[in-house]
Amino acid sequence: MNKVMRVRRHQPRRFVTATSTFVLATALASAAPAFAQEAPAPAEDQTSPSVPLTGQDTLIEDTQSGPGEVVVTGTRIISSGFTAPTPTTVIGEEQIAANAQPNIFNTVAQLPALQGSTGASTGTFSTSSGTQGLSSFSLRGLGPIRTLTLLDGQRVVGANVTGVPDISMFPQLLVKRVDVVTGGASASYGSDAVGGVVNFITDTRFTGFKANVQGGVTHYGDDGQALVQAAYGGALLDNRLRVIVSGEYSHEGGVGPGDFGTDLAGSRDWYRATTLVNTGITNNGSPQFLYRDFAQPYQYSRYGLINNGPLQGTAFDVNGVPYAFNYGSNGQPLGNGRVSNCFPGNSFCVGGDLSGAPGSGASLKSELERINGSGRLGFDFAENNEVYVTVNIAQVTSNNQPSPGYGRPSLTVQCANPFLPQSIRDRCAVAGITSFSFGTSNAAFPDPKVSTDRRQYRFVAGAKGRFGLIGSEWNYDAYYQHGTTISDINVDDIVLQNRYVAATNAVTLNGAIVCADPAARAAGCQPINIFGGFAPSAAALAYVTPENGPFQHTKLTQEVASVNVSGDLFNLWAGPLSLAFGGEYRSEFYRVNGDPYGAGVTGLSPNSPEYPADPLLNSTLGSNWAAGNYKNGRGSYHVYEGFAELNLPLFNSSAIGRANLNGAARVTDYSTSGTVWAWKVGGTWDTPLDGFRLRAVTSRDVRAPNLSELFAAPTVTTLPNFGDPFRNVAVQVFQNTIGNPDLQPEIARNTEIGAVYANPSWLPGLSLSFDYYSIKLDGVVSTLSPDQIVRFCFEGNQAFCGGFELNSPIQGGNFVNVQPFNLASWKTSGFDVEASYQWKKPMGMPGTFTIRALATHVREFLVDAGIPGVSVVDQAGANNGNTPNWKVLGIQTYSDDAFSLTLQERWFSDGTFGNQYVVCSVGTCPTSTGNNPTIDYNRMKGAFYLDLGGSINVGEQGAFFFKIDNLLDHDPAPAPQTNTGLDVNPALYDTLGRTYRAGFRVRF
């Protein structure tokens, strides 16, 4: 098994590249990329194809299903004149092209209702999450696992064990529009649609050739980008047989890492090591947490610091020369591990020697490379009836540096260590000590690197079309999908902790410096000098950080069989009674294998060339690495479900307008958690007022726990500077996250009420919408943070005291167990506003001026942990999270036959670090608690970003284009931590700075 895994680790890219050669060759050979794609098909409430839709479920012609068929993502009903009550925002080809992003994910994620999406700029600080480089959407701040992402209305196999697909793997050049349903849609589409649906609609009847080539770079000379895309569509046999192939290659170079201290990648200068320093004092009238720039931990330094005992405060420079460490804060070592005038709650001082802080050394953006090949073969076996086969093969690789060196805050060093300068050994003798506590960032070590490789193979066979029954025309859509994702994660240059400890404990034997432990020496231990910037020898590195570092191999499979039928039953007084019904079977499976040193095995053989047995390592439990301890696991479930949806016309007259009542119900049976129901009831009223429509819908939505939550192999995350409130010190602990097979589905109640004012006769081209939403989610699968678990125990809640150890004498023995339960409940509410207007021949000028604006206001986002003693927290406006109070996107475009120019504004409001904090000053503070800690400052500025883009047409087929994102080079606001991480929130803020892109498009 180990040898097979090891081979796979170096081969997948060649396999997928070869598989996609036939489509990529077309793209690479063309070098004559793409004209702005065709405008969306005409839509009701829309005066021109180039006017974006404004939050409306409207009738949109779906060219993939033959002329005249209408498909709306917010409903399964297909019927002439029907308008669904669920708000839907549509992004068309023109907006996608104008935004000129290397990944369509970046364009869609800018919508204000999308909050907390993950991409290449998020997750770069972690080692074990497995989500680096994963592009996934989150609606309403509910997380990617509660947003259902579809491709042509069909499910897509997940890119990791959470079941979330990776948008980077979609055939992006063929996308003609993206529908974003901002409301619960479980009754129509099934589990995961609690926050809504993002549906990518591709042009399955595309004919001709189109291509796109673009490049980009940041103002700081990094994140170099290259994108090559091409697609061809042809028709044979009197247009009955259609063949479409597309391919794309994209490379984003990423940003970072920086270095220790405050040095970011490039010449970026906004990092200030901003930290919430913990005074450790909770009841003397002073704030417990203080907002401070340039904070540094006082337990370690770049090349080593003695942090306890009579020699405390002695540091070592790059040459190994001892010197008195500059703590900042006028701090002086007290000899007991603490420092005067500093903050023992999380062991920080302010100012001084910042060279050892690792926060700025994390990547700001993962390097991302994606290769995507797609093919579709469709045959019309009868008029308006088609059978088809679709193949999507994609590979996405990424890498990032989570932090530099290897932070080790509490190492015991013997005074007899021969690498120690003689002056330190002499001082040990004078002080009467034989050892001391030592902390180091190990800056001379190679920096760790996390590499992910995801390969996806998706095959769909289906049939869709129309047939006559009981005097009316019915639509059907049936498909079978098989999807497989193979994911490999490799971590390089990570330390085996016990080997590192053995290598640092050196002695002189027979005139040579060797490892003190005879068993370690027999297993190949080579000594390391940690007192200064001396790079370990090749042999020592091979022992401490072996080449076959942490590794995880995951296989996920998804099988889906689905059929949907829609039509009119019979005509009533106000129109046809329409029905949609169908059923689906789905199975999900995953298997994950980690390397033996991380996962643990029994009977490790010394004869294994890759993972030899070692008396210093735990061969049964694993968790031997400093980070990246991946475990073995597997799990599966299957789902049977059926649904029905009805549209009842209520009235239709010029006097009172037109109204309909829409309802749906879905029953779902999960092999893991039993049967659950979802439903929705809503309606629309096109009032007699010109262009004015009212709509409302309420629904019961569900999300079943995913494979990760049910069956996750334990995930181990290293927390190097965890605050121990019992001893008021910082220690290194392991966070052990495990699954829970007894989880039940989450249940949500989703309500939306809105109004649309579109295309009034007095101002054609104007479209306005306003929608209030409220979501109440019960039985939320969630966990408390390790800090919360320990803090609640410390405050006397004994229910939390059995799942952690903070003072273990065993190396690596400190841990906090974290497990999900259906205890929490969330409630969020707010409203969306959307508007657009198209002005033809403005002020007599040729061409068209179009404006569009979207805004989301989050009024509340209440998180109730469901645990006695834990307070409800309102996360709305907490800019350290995902849900600012206001988020706005504005777009203005002028275009004519020769050129186009677009301005785009992105803004979100000021907020807080967290609404749980109580702001107070010295002498006025109440008692600080885990629920409501006191703080001296709690304001986190919002941000305004201005983007500029444009294009110049070359004939009728081609166009040069450019785009500048973050034109004003706005720096992110600090998102202060209570540890040594990078103080920034990439889920909200642009961390890269001004970015330039340019390219050429062509279409024939």
Automatic annotation (TrEMBL):
Q: What is its main location?
A: membrane
TonB-dependent receptor plug domain sequence ranges: 84-197
Keyword set for this entry? Answer: Cell outer membrane, Membrane, Receptor, Signal, TonB box, Transmembrane, Transmembrane beta strand, Transport
Cite the Gene3D superfamilies for this sequence.
TonB-dependent receptor, beta-barrel domain, TonB-dependent receptor, plug domain
Concerning InterPro entries, the annotation shows: Beta-barrel_TonB, Beta-barrel_TonB_sf, Plug_dom, Plug_dom_sf, TonB-dep_rcpt-like, TonB_rcpt_CS
Instruction: Note the PROSITE patterns from the entry.
Output: TONB_DEPENDENT_REC_2, TONB_DEPENDENT_REC_3
Question: Per its UniProt entry, which superkingdom is the organism in?
Answer: Bacteria
Q: Show where the TonB-dependent receptor-like beta-barrel domain sits.
A: 471-967
Membrane topology designation: Multi-pass membrane protein
Task: Tell where it localizes.
Answer: Cell outer membrane
Family as reported in the entry's similarity comment: Belongs to the TonB-dependent receptor family.
What name appears for this protein in its UniProt entry? Answer: Outer membrane receptor protein involved in Fe transport
Q: Which organism is it from?
A: Sphingomonas xinjiangensis
